[in-house]
Amino acid sequence: MKNHIIAAVAVAMLLVTIASALALVAGPFTREEALAASQDPRFYNELGYMLAQQEETAAAQDAFERAVEMDSQYVRARSNLATIAFQNADYTTAIEQLRWLTSESPDAGYSFDLAQNLVHQARFVDQDLTKLEEAAAIFESLGDYPNAAENARIVRNVLGTV
Question: For 12-26, 80-94, 106-120, which range has the lowest pLDDT when averaged over its residues?
Fold first, then answer.
């Protein structure tokens, strides 16, 4: 929780910096314009991207989460949130986002990433073999997708040895 507060303060400071920079370039914002920007999920998605580029991954995750809270159908923000959550070893959040993405926007890349996160969750967090079973099944369902068959074989071999 303390890290989220620190991240929120960092985001607020960055927002002030961005607003100041924009004011220099585009002139001062009215209160209404500033409020409108803070209510736009695209703003938080872009902020998250900028923070991720600066390797501020906790703050980036907070920004992507805010974008998704504001617009639960925002595919790009969910995809970015899944990616940064994986980088932060927050596999639960990544899996949640990837489950939504695969159900709403079927894409082999999202399915592959879901399987990868399930493997990491089982390997590094909870040793839940059902997650490995699910990951193997997802990898197998991907057919010729790059590395899917090899990953399925590896996961099945691990499951065969436990």
Answer: 12-26
The 3-state secondary structure of 87-136, one letter per residue: HCCCHHHHHHHHHHHHHHCCCHHHHHHHHHHHHHHHHHHHCCHHHHHHHH
Choice between 58 and 38, residue whose per-residue pLDDT is larger? 58
**Amino acid at residue number 36:** A
Residue pLDDT, tens place only, 43-97 = 999 999 999 999 999 999 999 999 999 999 999 999 999 999 999 999 999 999 9
Domain span including residue 49: 1-91
Q: Are residues 9 and 83 located together in one domain of the fold?
A: yes
Number of Cβ atoms within 10 Å of the Cβ of 35? 11
Distance CA 55, CA 108 (A): 27
Residues 68 and 121 in one domain: no
98: in domain: no
10 and 79 belong to one structural domain: yes
Cα separation of 109 and 43, whole Å? 25
Question: Quick check: is 53 in a domain?
Answer: yes
Q: How many structural domains comprise the chain?
A: 2
